[in-house]
Amino acid sequence: MAAKALVLVDIQNDYFADGRWPVDRMEEAAANAARLLAHARQAGDLVVHVRHEMPSDSAPFFRPGSFGAEIHASVAPAADEKVIAKRRPNSFQGTRLREELEAAGITDVVVCGAMTQMCIDATARAAADFGFAVTVIEDACGAKEQSFAGQTVSAPLVHAAIMAPLAMSYGRVMTTDEHLAATS
Q1: Average pLDDT for residues 54-77, to the nearest whole number?
Q2: Looking at the annotation, which residues are catalytic?
Q3: Which residues form the Isochorismatase-like domain (predicted)?
C-alpha cells in the first residue's frame, strides 16, 4: 500500500475575500481542503501544511507576522502536523519538504491550496520530478484572474489552463468527491 501525504499549500488568510490578495473561489477550495484534511487525519496519512511568507514588511500580501500570513482556521494544523514555511512558489525550493516526505516513506502526494497558477503548479511539477505520484484536487485549489499582453484571463480559465497540463503529464487531477470515493 502506498504511503500518502496531504500537502496543503498556502491556504492563508490573505487569499480570502477579506484578505490582501483574494483568490477566486477560495472559500469553496478551503472547504474542500478541510474535507481532505479530515479524511487524511482519519486515514492516518501524513499531513503537511505549507505557508508562504514574503520576506519584506512592504510585501503586497503574506507579510511576516501578519494575520494574512497565518494559515486559515478552516484547515488549522493539529499540534502533531508539520508546518513548512517557504518563500518561493515551489514548496520544495529552499525547504525541507522533500526530506520530510522521504523520511516518512511517502510515495504519493495529494496537493491542494492556492494559487493554482503559481504554487500549486510549481509544487505539483516538482513533486512529480522528485518521483512522487501526484494527485491534485482541483476543486480544493483556487486561481486568480491574470492579465497578459493586453488580455485578461478569468480565474476559471487560468485554473483550467493549469490543470490540463498537470493532468496530461504530471499526475492525476480529481475533484474532492472523486478522491474521497477512490480512497474510502
Answers
A1: 93
A2: 119
A3: 5-146
